[in-house]
Write a structure and sequence with these properties.
It comes from Brevibacillus fortis. This is HAD family hydrolase. The protein is an alpha/beta fold and about 170 residues long. Helices cover about 45% and strands about 15% of the residues. The chain has a single domain (about 1-10, about 40-65, about 80-170), classed as HAD superfamily/HAD-like (Rossmann fold, 3-Layer(aba) Sandwich). About 40% of the residues are buried.
């Protein structure tokens, strides 16, 4: 069993940093300085720890840079097996399946043994195209209707629901 997580709006609330992550106002140094304020959603730290204790491998697949992703992971002291970041799969991006396929390959598991969790319709579409069970993270989504309309295999209102699903299947 293994899990692929999206990073922003799935593991951490990074909305405050969004204006500085891309476009003409891009200022990565400002974003890096904001990392301590980009907090994990309630229950995420415990879920990651519980997955680690139960030998469930974890990959993060994100549109963020490797430097940003590593800094977030290190700041929150998460044990993550693999990171797949924008520069690994550019110019392709979700909803193209390549980012998820790279996560699957790095986890060295069959697609039937992996779930992918994300907050957007592009996460759902990429997981579906890659043949991976998709879970919609309603707790962090910016566009709830679009995520629902993308029809992930499962929708979770909060991290507790996700944890209960994972525990029932894999712990």
């Amino acid at each position: 069993m293994a899990i692929i997580f999206d990073l922003d709006q799935t593991l951490i609330d990074s909305r405050a940093a969004e204006p500085y992550r891309m476009g003409k106002n891009r200022d990565l140094n400002k974003v890096y300085g904001m990392i301590p304020t980009l907090t994990p959603y309630p229950g995420i730290n415990e879920l990651i720890e519980e997955c680690n204790q139960n030998n469930i491998r974890i990959s993060i697949v994100t549109a963020g840079t490797i430097h940003y992703c590593k800094r977030v992971v290190e700041h929150w002291q998460w044990k993550i097996d693999h990171l797949v970041c924008f520069h690994d799969y550019a110019p392709l991006k979700k909803p193209h399946p390549k980012p998820i396929q790279m996560g699957v390959a790095r986890l060295n598991k069959d697609t039937t043994d992996i779930i992918a969790i994300g907050d957007s319709s592009t996460d759902t579409e990429a997981a579906r195209k890659a043949g991976v069970f998709s879970i919609g993270a309603l707790w962090g989504t910016i566009d709830k209707q679009s995520l629902i309309a993308s029809k992930p295999d499962l929708l979770c209102e909060n991290v507790a629901e996700l944890r209960n699903f994972i525990a029932s299947k894999f712990f």
